[in-house]
UniProtKB/TrEMBL annotation:
One of its GO terms (cellular component) is endoplasmic reticulum. It holds the Pfam family Fes1. The lineage of its organism: Eukaryota, Sar, Stramenopiles, Ochrophyta, Dictyochophyceae. Residues 33-128 form the Nucleotide exchange factor Fes1 domain. This is Nucleotide exchange factor Fes1 domain-containing protein.
Length: 355
């Protein structure tokens, strides 16, 4: 069917997103796309007859905007609502000595999962910091009487908010969050001390990693002030024990690799050798492919920083053993084993060839 004058007239009357800007908390791109779609639908009609385009009246525009507002969640407003719920239904009752019921805990879990989804977008992560969302989450993560699942959610939300977000990293450092996370990683002391579960420690290490990485002041605080390398070494060394946690070791090795690549030399003084001993020992016992790859990458990072010669002097015989095992494994009949061995061998060859 013919379409009369739609394109030219519609172009002249192209809807300006500046005239109907996205409401606060609404993704501007999504808002603009919905507006364009709505205008096009009006221009096209239902497709059963020729349709003349006519300019939308102010009343129609106001109606359209109201309908679209109702259909789109204001994520900043929703984040604030969830934070208020966490204060009123978790922090306040527990501070008064009232444990949460299972129903209350499940309700809060659902809300925190929603908040986690919201902060996946960095603009909304920044907004969560601006509306005061971090202090309640830090308090929940640090309070032993809060159900562990909610503490884990709190740490995960903080981690996502901080990741690659200097604004949030600065704010969290100013709130004293880093020592709290590190305390959850360090061995607990005293008769009344309760060591957090491995799952909670994983989330604490995740939050620590996201807060520290690529932030010079946070890296220095972690390594120098809080003994970060010693804590990471303890986690990595635990892998040789029967109750070692591979996921926790992966996270610790990943953060170690990141720090080896970025911290100033002063942070490595007196620490690189015991850390390397822990990493080499980890390679001697680890079978997890990802863990082995991260471990070799950490050693490779040190080599690229000029530590190749002392590494070979101190650990050369053991490193040669790893290389020999990889060469043998690369010709294994099992395709998966040979592929993994070949991939690790390439990393070792890069290590040996770096200057």
């Amino acid at each position: 069917l013919p379409r009369i004058g739609i394109e030219s007239d519609f172009t002249k009357e192209k809807f300006s997103t500046q005239k109907m800007a996205a409401p606060t908390g609404v993704d501007p791109a999504m808002w603009a796309a919905l507006l364009r779609w709505s205008m096009k639908c009006q221009a096209d009609g239902d497709g059963t007859a020729p349709t003349d385009f006519k300019k939308m009246s102010k009343e129609d525009r106001d109606f359209l905007e109201e309908v679209m507002k109702e259909g789109i969640v204001d994520h900043v407003k929703r984040s604030a609502e969830i934070v208020d719920e966490l204060k009123n239904k978790c922090i306040s009752p527990i501070s008064e000595g009232n444990p949460l019921t299972d129903e209350a805990c499940e309700e809060l879990e659902i809300m925190m999962e929603e908040l986690q989804d919201i902060v996946e977008q960095i603009d909304f992560a920044k907004a969560l910091v601006q509306i005061g969302g971090m202090p309640p989450l830090i308090e929940m993560a640090n309070e032993t009487n809060v159900p562990e699942i909610l503490r884990m959610y709190a740490l995960a939300i903080i981690a996502t908010t901080a990741q690659n977000n200097p604004y949030a990293q600065d704010a969290l450092l100013g709130m004293g969050a880093l020592p709290i996370f590190v305390a959850l990683l360090a061995p607990q002391e005293g008769e009344a001390a309760v060591t957090p579960s491995s799952k909670l420690r994983q989330k604490a290490l995740y939050a620590t990693s996201c807060l520290v990485r690529s932030h010079a002041r946070a890296e220095a605080s972690f390594c120098v002030d809080l003994g970060g390398f010693g804590i990471l070494m303890t986690i990595i060394s635990a892998g040789k024990q029967p109750d070692g946690n591979t996921q926790l070791e992966r996270r610790a090795t990943f953060l170690t690799n990141a720090l080896f690549s970025s911290v100033p030399d002063v942070c490595l003084d007196g620490t690189w050798e015991p850390m390397t001993e822990a990493l080499v020992s980890q390679l001697e016992s680890a079978s997890d492919v990802d863990l082995r790859e991260q471990t070799v990458n950490a050693l490779l990072g040190l080599a690229h920083r000029g530590f190749k010669a002392p590494l070979l002097e101190r650990f050369g015989e053991r490193i040669n053993g790893f290389v020999s095992n990889c060469r043998q494994g690369a010709v294994d009949d099992d395709e998966e084993k040979s592929g993994n061995a070949a991939a690790e061998l390439r990393l070792w060859e890069e290590f040996l060839s770096c200057v």
